[in-house]
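Lecture 7 notes. Example A: sequence first, then its structure tokens.
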Amino acid sequence: MAGLIPHQLQILGNTIKVVIVPRRRWRRLNLEGHWSPNRNTIAICDSVPDERKGQVFCHELVHAILDAMNDPKSKNEVFVDNFASLLHQAWSTIK
């Protein structure tokens, strides 16, 4: 799915940019990705292995969607990770 990560997408009319950040500029050392609602940006560290980038993208996308819905589940990392894992599995096996 690494090749299927978009450069941008729309949620409720807002443009969400997706950026791959070089490791040397990555400031969130304990994270592989980050959703920034203030900047409408999903960032993914370029050192994440290609086979995991899709999972990381889906995880941050779920945060973005839940935030757009004003759903408090966006703060529940277990829920977000479980939902993102299933979303990634479904998306990456589409025929």
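Example B, a different protein, same format:
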Amino acid sequence: MEDTLAIYHLIASHPPAADTGSDGYYRDAFVPYAVIDLGGGKTANGNEAIAAVVKTPAHQAAISGGLCHFAGLPRVQLDGDSA
């Protein structure tokens, strides 16, 4: 149950962090060897690179334009150390 709640917290924290450009959230939420697929062939490798995404001119322009993320409650299925 604790793992499921931790996953829900991670998912719920992303929208406000992305919408405010909170790079500290991403540094803390991802490990140094994390990889994120942003779609369209764009990826970021490592928590520093992931955090830097919200400080890019394109992301800052999106925030200025009213960027607004929404998150739904996903179904989380745990299997040992994987989810």
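Note on Example B: The longest helix spans residues 2-20. The two ends are 12 Å apart (CA to CA).
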